[in-house]
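Now for my pick.
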Amino acid sequence: MTDDIAIAHEAEAIHGRYVTRLDSGEAAEMTYVIRAPGVRDFNHTFVPDAFRGTGIAARLMARAIADAKTEGFRIVPTCSYVAAQFRRHPEWSEFKA
């Protein structure tokens, strides 16, 4: 399931999200607010109950880290899930604001 999900990045002037549409018609998402140039505050992660534990949130996070690498932004981990992922992946420390 998680290997073939498409993750879209939807961005507006001061906020955005990484989102995937699930087979159920629901969406999983990770949202952020732009705090300063090059700084995004990731403040919320949501995965519907039926899809928790399937790795979807990890895929959203991996996409955010990949974009941080290519776009050069840093992440404020306000969301508890994002903070936990930074603790689990010390190799991402350069992307933490």
